[in-house]
Amino acid sequence: MNKTLIRDALVVLPSGPQVTSVLIEGRRIAAIDPALHTHADEVVSAAGLWLLPGVIDDQVHFREPGLTHKEDLATASRACAKGGVTTYLEMPNTKPTTTTVERLAEKLALAATKSLVNFGFYIGATPDNVAELKAAQRTPGIKIFIGSSTGDLLVDSQEALERIFAETTLPITAHCEDESIVRANAARFAGVNDPAVHSRIRDHEAAMVATRRALDLAFRHRHRFHVLHVSTAAEAELLADHRGLITGEACPHHLFFSVDDYARLGTLIQMNPSIKTRADNEALWRALLEGRLQVVATDHAPHTLEEKAKPYPSSPSGLPAVENSLALMIDQVQRGRCSLAQVVSWMCDAPARVWDLVGKGRIELGYDADLVLVDPHKTAVVRNAEQETKCKWSPWDGVELTGWPVRTWVLGREVFRDGRINTEVRGEEALFDHARGGFWATA
Question: What's the N-to-C CA distance of the chain in angstroms?
Fold first, then answer.
């Protein structure tokens, strides 16, 4: 059994950061002790570096099958490895959509052959697939689009939503933007080609109305519910009332970009839900720091630059982020906005607990050796040409960040080291123990 000893790092343990050493045996963490001097196949001298659990990104769109000119599981997982993301949970809006147990199994089988990091896939809700949702097991949960989507994934009727919340048991998550409000606003602004109008079409009211609707369903049916990509201060306030059922997350684009950035970045920051105001940015940060939001995830949703260059509203919504999200957050640690322990909570421990992931999210004895070593002093500029994502661009192109992943291990195997990716590594299907009861049950 292969052994790797990582010595003298600042290790982010569940009890807090501590300078210690970590022994990996095979695929698991076998020992944590500052006095470790055991024989190992490789000894990593990590003094001055930070050792974190691998990031768990619970909201990505990796485009396979059906949209692989934008991204695929191989290119996306390369980007994950570089960015310190060791497990991803991917959304069902591929072509075909992941709305049956059979399609879920097909996706899992495909990822097993292609993905360099660990993987899981949501099953998507439609107005009439409750039987499939009830039969699904190898999944973190059910994804509902309560708002604009493609194909058969829009679930906007109250009757269909009531059935899903009443009759299923898997955790539910949703894209919350009110379809009627978005359509009415789009009609008002028809013919306007300024990308900034996107935030007036998908406005604060659209987000708030849909989120209130989803929370009402979750509370009445006593059903665990996770609010994706919270974009407004009002939603963040609403989520203070969690009743042991509700969790929520923020994405880097909603933390770092505001409507003021349309003038500079245009459709590159066109997202659903839309970018909001600087006041909303600050409110989301406060909500994370105060515990009203628990998770930071990317909503990685790449399109080609040619697609993004189309005139609004023909331009698609979405941007890539998995390979830069951890560096963006570590940079904020270095700037004093948040602590290292908080970043690890938001990006590693909390998503593992929200989705009942087995053996992930912590540096703890017996846990999977999904680890990322960060150089807190490394300063580098995000460059489009250096991106691993197939779309080869980032909205943070040209931004200098301090604190970068330098090595990543997946199940004890090194998948990334100092700019080089080991494409021989394969992640595994994530396992979920939903009897644990989610974030609040394990708090």
Answer: 34
pTM of the model: 0.98
* DSSP, residue by residue, 9-68: EEEEETTEEEEEEEEEETTEEEEE-TT-----SEEEE-TT-EEEEPEEEEEE---TTT-T
Mean residue pLDDT of the chain comes to 96
- Catalytic residue numbers read 299
148 in a domain, yes or no?
Answer: yes
Per-residue pLDDT, 146: 83
Number of domains composing the chain: 1
Q: 59: part of which helix (H) or strand (E)?
A: strand 55-60
Mean pLDDT (whole number) for 410-425 = 97
Whether pLDDT at 150 is above 70: no
User: What are 132's strand-pairing partners?
Assistant: none
Note whether residue 16 is domain-resident.
no
| Angle formed by the axes of helices 204-221 and 179-188, nearest 10° | 170
Structural domain boundaries enclosing 324: 54-356
- Region at 231 (left for phi over 0; alpha for psi -120 to 50; beta for the rest): alpha
Cα 149 → chain centroid: 19
Name the DSSP letter for residue 229.
Answer: S
CATH number at residue 294: 3.20.20.140
Quick check: 330 and 90 in contact, CB under 8 A? no
For 339, list phi and psi in degrees, rounded to 5: -100, 160
pLDDT at 156: 81
pLDDT, average across residues 113-128: 97
- State whether the Cα torsion 173-176-179-183 is positive or negative: negative
SS3 201: helix
The predicted structure's pLDDT at residue 147:
62
148 pLDDT above the threshold of 90: no
Question: DSSP for 279-293?
Answer: HHHHHHHHHHHHTS-
